[in-house]
Design goal:
Elements (H helix, E strand, L loop, with lengths): L1 H10 L14 H25 L1 H14 L1 H13 L5 H26 L2 H24 L1
């Protein structure tokens, strides 16, 4: 399916190219560190106070900011035995889904309708194996 999307996108023509800043700047690294620390802290507090509901809430909110931090936090909780693996997998998928949903919204808002639908299609391909794995647990 990914190959079909790539082929379809290639035939649509070339769009504008985005420019990216330097990801190795100290300011970027510090922002990531702060976001990471806050998400790890909130995930642990929410899980202790609210159980799995808190874990899912923290994953949904954290996923809108940074899915990587949520993933590391949940892996740490599952490794320590604080949560079971099925809840961890579901929480990680929720964080990634929320991140994809937010990015797709940005694509529609800041880009074009066509670009937004490409993002949605790409995220659908990405989420499908994870959802299938969750159903098999």
């Amino acid at each position: 399916m990914g190959a079909l999307i790539h082929r379809w996108a290639r035939h649509e023509g070339r769009g504008e190219h985005a420019t990216a800043g330097n990801p190795f700047q100290l300011k970027v690294a510090l922002k990531f560190g702060v976001v990471f620390a806050v998400i790890v802290f909130l995930s642990k507090v929410a899980t202790v106070q609210l159980g799995e509901r808190g874990l899912f809430l923290a994953s949904a909110v954290g996923g809108t900011v940074d899915a990587d931090s949520v993933l590391v936090s949940i892996a740490e909780l599952a490794g320590a035995g604080t949560i079971n693996y099925q809840a961890g997998v579901a929480a990680i998928l929720l964080a990634i889904f929320m991140n994809g949903l937010l990015k797709s919204g940005f694509a529609f808002f800041a880009g074009s309708r066509r670009f937004g639908w490409r993002m949605v299609a790409g995220f659908a391909v990405m989420f499908s194996p994870g959802a299938a794995a969750l159903l098999m647990l």
